[in-house]
Amino acid sequence: MEEEDTINLNPCELGTKSYWDSAYETEIKNYLDNGDIGEIWFDESSQTRIIKWLNKQDTSKDASIIDLGTGNGAMLFELSEAEYTNLTGVDYSEKSIELAQKIAIDQDQPHITFKVCDLLADVTELGRFDVCHDKGTFDAIGLMNDAFDKKEIYTKNVFDLLNDKGLFIITSCNFTELELTKSFSNYFDKFEVIPSQTFQFGGKVGKTTTSICFKKKETLSK
Predict the structure, then answer these.
(1) Cβ(175)–Cβ(193) under 8 Å?
(2) Rounded to whole angstroms, what are the CA distances from 70 to 5, 98, 135, 158, 164?
(3) What is the Cα–Cα distance from 209 to 151, expressed in whole angstroms?
(4) CA nearest 159: which of 100, 85, 216?
(5) Exposure string (b/e) for 182-203, b if CB count within 10 Å is 16 or more?
(6) How far is CA 119 from the centre of its chain?
(7) Could you report the per-residue pLDDT of 16-62, keeping only the tens digit for each?
(8) The domain defined by 13-216 carries CATH number 3.30.420.270
(9) What are the residue boundaries of the Methyltransferase domain, all occurrences included (predicted)?
(10) CA distance 118 to 12
């Protein structure tokens, strides 16, 4: 059995489906009332950095990209603006998907596919993708009860969702580069750390988030 992560987070409401259903129900009401699409995790700059990095990799504009825990779909709308065309968003909150679909219709982006899916359950019906993107979803799983086991399930499911040589891009505010690398080491090789915004405090430099691209392993260790 693998050793547990070097960081153990205390379970809290951010790791519960009821919290997110309630949050997105409120965001749907706000969107219908005033057109506010809701919160963008880690702000828009984090999305911009990921898209710029994908462009530098000469990622095909028709590469299949899935956003894991898509929320209001903001990342996919930005990818669409950057002319990526094969986009899918999944979330286990039905209210999240309802909100994302409403925004997609209003923004005339019907080509983006949104589906309700629990990433800790069977994901085979989703098919396979060239890029899997996670911004905050692994963080939320880390706040669930029995998080260690659930993170293992999630990691295996992401592996199964990727095509051979597929890329897994994750942005986290709870886990460091070392912790993320360790968490995914059974299924992925670290490919590149994507630059994040830094801050300075007390003479020390830190980062508010960590973004890493992993490559799917060609063979798994027995």
Answers:
(1) no
(2) 25, 11, 8, 14, 23
(3) 19
(4) 216
(5) bbbeebbeeeeebebeeeeeee
(6) 11
(7) 999 999 999 999 999 999 888 877 766 678 899 999 999 999 999 99
(8) no
(9) 60-186
(10) 19
Q: SS3 breakdown of the chain: % helix, strand, coil, rounded to 5?
A: 40, 25, 35
Q: Tell me the C-alpha distance between 40 and 182, whole Å.
A: 27
d(CA 135, CA 12): 18
* Percent of the chain surpassing pLDDT 70: 89
Residue ranges per structural domain of the chain:
13-216
- Secondary structure element (H or E) that encloses residue 155, with its range: helix 147-161
Which residue in this structure is represented by tokens 């799983």? 141
3-class DSSP state of 13: helix
pTM: 0.90
